[in-house]
Amino acid sequence: MEQEPLPIANRFDFLTEEIVFTILDCLNDDAFAKKSFSLVCKSFYFIESRHRKSLRPLNSDFISRTLKRYRFISELDLSLCPRVDDAALFQIASSRSFLRSINLSRSRMFTHNGVSSLVANCTNLVEIDLSNRSDLTDSAAAAIAEAKNLERLWLARCKMITDMGIGCVAVGCRKLRFICLKWCLRVSDLGVGLIAMKCKQIRTLDLSYLPITEKCLPPILQLEYLEDLVLEGCLGIDDDGLATLKHGSKSLKNLSHVGLSSLTYGAEHLQQLILAYSLSVTADLAKCLHNISGLQSIKLDGCSVRTSGIKAIGNWLASLKELSLSKCLGVTDECLSFLVQAHKELRKLDITCCRKITYASIDSITNSCTSLTSLRMESCSLVSKDAFVLIGQRCRFLEELDITDNEIDNEGLKSISSCSKLLTLKLGICLNISNDGLTHVANGCSNLKELDLYRSSGIADEGIAAIAHGCPALEMMNIAYNDKITDTSLISLSKCMMLKALEIRGCPSVSSVGLSAIAMGCRQLMVLDIKKCININDNGMIPVAQYSQNLTQINLSYCSVTDVGLLALASINRLQCMTILHLSGLSPNGLAAALLACRGLTKVKLHTSFKPLLPQPVFNHMEARGCALHWRDKAFQVEIDPKGWGLHYGRSHEAV
User: Fold this and answer.
1) Where does the record place the F-box/LRR-repeat protein 15-like leucin rich repeat domain (predicted)?
2) pTM over 0.90
């Protein structure tokens, strides 16, 4: 009798758990790869559950199931779960002996009892984020105080917590290194002083918008290891109070405040200074910082600057690495040229809306600061097209370039295509560029991840096809309000498998055909804006619902989607935010059904006309689930603005 061949051994069986863990370490940035890995075989499924150390559930309903599978989690992020009650925290506390970090910054419904159970059972906790819980009281702070090993604590906008609660934290959490009390409006000098006196290991202290005065500064400045102090919006501290900084902390590295004219001897190791939207930058103010040789970054956004002040900055002992003059009034060619010639080691420069500068400034910048990695110069309207050629010729290390609303043409793009390290390129409202310019970019900037072509009306399908072919790593694409864009562009972009955000609002020639291609090809898509794409209907929503399972945010306003298409989106478990204004095919019953079916929603923007038409139980259900309904009364917009270049500010974050 012929002997049966021996079964072939599974080669994976020869891999030790340590080797498999090493493989999984290489997949930490790719959730899809990890999921695929765990489905190879039972042993890999088990090993992946032991390897995972961080977890971010999409819905509070999944907490119980996921915690049973992943028993060695040390970092638990519940920021996507608005509905987390005490029962959920009790369950976490009962089995999470390895837990070191928990984020509850977007969660509601739990009380101090849940926090107390969590702290009592998870003794290894070093990080807790309770931001945005405006109803938490001193009882919750007292519960936190029992976390003896706590090092980092966020209490931003916990507006009911008072000095008494902060005092409990100060006494109980002596190992604190970071604490954020931003907008804790009932915390005064007393509470802040207790933190400073009891928590001697503090490195970072955020006191933004607290009703404090200079009385709390002396103990703060005695903190031996203090590096970051944020006093933004603390209107009770004036220049006289800030004079105490002259005798203060020697380790302070970062300070942010409105009105720092008394910083002459403030901190020997100051590295970053933020004076945004505050005061006039004069020679006297600049001279205060002359001797701080370690200063690396200064942000003067929105300040009024004088030539004498800018020149004084040019005479500093420090060699700046980052400078932001965004929307500063008074910046001229003369002062900017002097400044960049003095600080040739600049890596990041922001001159957004410096409307007085011309070719001369760009010539000086590119000639002096050849190591720039980031240049932002949106709306520098007097800069001629020839200046952009200099950028590509001299600044070959650029990774970020924002030239929105400028006179750049195809020759400028041809030069910029020499910047092979470019990752982000913003060309919104650049009316002189066309497909030829984009082809140059595609040929030279293969690493590009973000491209903004908002209202760049010379762009058509040919240019988008070149980008899609030459920049396969593209993650974010904005081609909004370009009427020459058709389904052909979307079919081209569907080959960009890493695409995560796509904005095509106001492109009337795209349809469900193009959107279907995107859905099938770009499986990692997370943000989709198809507002005013009137030819996209339910036929486009079906493939989106089937293939775009990572979608978290969608804007459907003014589309031709009906109840059927909206309800189809319920199959996307990750979907959190929807904007659905002026959908003519949407009925009250269809809207109610979709709201109830999309269980992961946290925010929905709706037209007020639906408010009296929805039954009260729907509102009750959405509130209980932690979903906020935002009502808008904006009138129907018939025509796309033909002169959009005058309306570009805030274009990526329009309300509807």
Assistant:
1) 83-247, 331-519
2) no
